[in-house]
Design a protein that fits this description.
It is a multi-pass membrane protein. Keywords: Cell membrane, Membrane, Transmembrane, Transmembrane helix, Transport. It is found in: Cell membrane. This is ABC transporter permease. With 317 residues, the chain is mainly alpha-helical. The chain has one domain: Orthogonal Bundle (MetI-like fold). It is 66% helix and 0% strand. The protein contains 14 helices and no strands. The longest helix has 37 residues. The radius of gyration is 24 Å and the shape is elongated.
């Protein structure tokens, strides 16, 4: 009995899981202590709810039947020439600025979220393979990442957008334009994820629980996905939050330059580009309110990302 008791296998304790490490008591306590993070989270939630409920606005700016040119360039309601129900005024096509902002906000958030999801998927997969396999595979992936870092993200996005338009002959439907924008953003921001995950994987792959998984015969893909990835993905959430703001700015920049959403279905960047035509003729509200919305959205997401980065850093706890 004693011999059998002493020969019992001893298994290494597995580190806490993904949600236990990210949403543990320390992170939640840090969030409650940071009034700035709480305000940023509430503001971000308000923007998402506004985009979700955009159809409840006073007008559908994408429906030509609801637009009248006689209502074009009406100033905000509180000015002398303001007219109800146009609270923030109208643009050159008679679109209600408030309704256009709500619908444009939805497009910007969708493109930003899908772009971050794509870039995170690419970066995490490549970083996981590079860190776990090592050798020539690691060197190849990291050299590609180093080359991409020499180019600004907006140039890569413009290149992808230009190639897509050249292949399609310049005639693309709205879903195709959205897909190109998502692809452009996804291919522009994957490097940060890959480098972060790779460095974490190189540490985690030598842990006892990984060695135990190898001993029981688990394949490398199973070990990488089921055991290593959950314990290396924590910092990715902070990167994704900050990159979400960058993705929104990138989409707005592409649309402002005319490489994004068309005038008929504008995002925030397209609305700013439309308003820029009339900025020096006195119709300041056409560009001012979409620009202010974009600035507040990016500020809220950035503040939330900064807090999350500090909260997940064990050296600052």
């Amino acid at each position: 009995m004693a011999a059998s008791a002493t020969s019992a296998p001893v298994t290494a304790a597995k580190p806490p899981g993904l949600f236990a490490r990210i949403f543990d008591g320390d992170v939640w306590a840090s969030f409650r202590r940071s009034k700035l993070a709480m305000v940023a989270a509430i503001a971000t939630l308000i923007f998402f709810l506004a985009a979700l409920l955009a159809n409840l606005g006073p007008q559908d700016p994408f429906d030509p039947a609801q637009l009248e040119l006689i209502n074009s360039r009406i100033p905000p309601l509180w000015t002398a020439d303001g007219q109800p129900p146009f609270l923030l005024g109208t643009d050159d096509q008679g679109r209600d600025i408030l309704s256009a902002i709500l619908h444009g906000l939805r497009i910007s958030l969708i493109v930003g979220a899908l772009g971050v999801l794509l870039s995170a998927t690419i970066g995490i997969a490549l970083g996981l393979v590079a860190g776990y396999v090592g050798g020539a595979v690691d060197a190849l992936i990291m050299r590609v990442a180093d080359v991409q870092l020499t180019f600004p993200a907006i140039l890569i996005a413009l290149l992808v957008d230009g190639v897509a338009k050249a292949v399609s002959g310049g005639q693309m439907s709205t879903p195709a334009i959205l897909g190109v924008l998502v692809l452009s953003i996804g291919l522009s921001f994957w490097v940060q994820y890959a480098r972060t995950v790779r460095s974490s994987v190189m540490v985690e792959k030598n842990r006892d629980y990984v060695q135990a998984a190898r001993l029981i015969g688990l394949s490398s893909p199973v070990i990488m996905v089921r055991h290593v990835l959950p314990n290396t993905i924590g910092p990715v959430f902070a990167i994704a939050t900050i990159n979400f703001a960058l993705a929104i700015i990138t989409e707005a920049t592409l649309s402002f330059l005319g490489s994004g959403m068309p005038d008929t279905q504008p995002s925030l960047g397209t609305l700013i580009r439309i308003g820029n035509r009339y900025l020096f003729s006195g119709e300041w509200w056409i560009a001012a309110f979409p620009g202010l919305t974009l600035a507040l959205l990016v500020l809220a997401v950035n503040l939330l990302g900064d807090w999350l980065r500090d909260a997940l850093n064990p050296k600052l706890r």
